[in-house]
Amino acid sequence: MVQTKETIIAIRDLQKSYKDHQVLNKINFSVKKGSIFALLGSNGAGKTTTIKILSTLLKPDKGSAVINGLDVTKKAEQVREIISLTGQYAAVDEGLTGRENVRMIGKLRHVTNPNKEADALLGKVNLLEAADNRVATYSGGMRRRLDLAMSLLGNPPVIFLDEPTTGLDPQSRLSMWQMIKELADSGTTVFLTTQYLEEADYLADQISILNQGEIVAEGTSQDLKKLLPQGHIELGFHHEEEVGAAFSLLKEFNPSINQESHKIVLTTDGSIKQMTDMLNRLDQAGIPVAELTQKQPTLEDVFLTIIGEKEGA
Ligand SMILES: Nc1ncnc2c1ncn2[C@@H]1O[C@H](COP(=O)(O)OP(=O)(O)OP(=O)(O)O)[C@@H](O)[C@H]1O
């Protein structure tokens, strides 16, 4: 379990302002070794600023950020040796082929066998076929994968991905997600920022939501979903009289009737046990269910609820 692993990134009371604009207001979080951590937030929330501080590109005003026991401001050079950054900073040479780009970076980083490692990484990101084409001909998804391959040179233990799938089509996004999962499975710690709630939901072991420079919620996606009101299910029936009978039978689940669809809406705790209990009762009373739809809260709902509560406070 991720929870038992040791902490590799720890941020304490981190603050950063650009002139009088406070971007980070005492943020705190920690990341476990080998896990995927997602920092979630809308445009301008301070995600890139956090990544820049962690990757030693920017100094915080106050507070501390430590990676693998190394303070990012005091031991910047050592930190740079164990991290890699991809995203808005891609330094890809358009005139070179994919393979040439990876080999070049491999040589710059003094990788022991840059040609061999370049090919292994191009295979890992599914770019072997296009490896000898010039990058100028690559699609957005291929560029992201090349960028990822270049960041993986030298096998860094910690990788920062700043909005890795922004602007990608659904298929490229899915393939990026698979690569990110594989990376974490092989032991790399992945720190990613995203505006996509479903991305954090799918990938992250741990999520922190950043809003206006503050962490407003944190936990697993399941934890965050629990912050919301319970889920609902809707039951459809073949005949109107069955709707009435089912309504009486399921009174304790706080039923209501959707006037448009004539379906019964029930509040649930999301457990299989409760769902089975409801369906068994209907079955024993000889009322066949024609349709069942379940609405689970999404991270989008969580985000809107938390932000809404804060703004309404
Ligand atoms: N160099 C800078 N000088 C002044 N203000 C800045 C600078 N860099 C960022 N900001 C401001 O700080 C705030 C946070 O920016 P940041 O890039 O960290 O947000 P973000 O969460 O990464 O947003 P996005 O998703 O748009 O990239 C924004 O209001 C931005 O305009």
TrEMBL record:
Alphabetical list of NCBIfam families matching this protein: drrA (TIGR01188)
InterPro entries registered for this protein in UniProt: AAA+_ATPase, ABC_transporter-like_ATP-bd, ABC_transporter-like_CS, ABC_transporter_ATP-binding, DrrA, DrrA1/2-like_C, P-loop_NTPase
Family, similarity comment: Belongs to the ABC transporter superfamily. Drug exporter-1 (DrugE1) (TC 3.A.1.105) family.
UniProt topology in membrane: Peripheral membrane protein
Pfam families: ABC_tran, DrrA1-3_C
Domain (ABC transporter): residue spans on this chain: 9-237
Transmembrane intervals: none
GO CC annotation, single: plasma membrane
Localization in the cell: Cell membrane
Keywords from the UniProt entry: ATP-binding, Nucleotide-binding, Transport
Gene3D superfamilies linked: P-loop containing nucleotide triphosphate hydrolases
Biological process terms in GO annotation: daunorubicin transport; doxorubicin transport
GO molecular function ontology, one term from the record: ATP hydrolysis activity
Protein name as catalogued: ABC-2 type transport system ATP-binding protein
Annotated SUPFAM superfamilies: P-loop containing nucleoside triphosphate hydrolases
PROSITE patterns attached to this UniProt entry: ABC_TRANSPORTER_1 (PS00211), ABC_TRANSPORTER_2 (PS50893)
Lineage: Bacteria, Bacillati, Bacillota, Bacilli, Bacillales
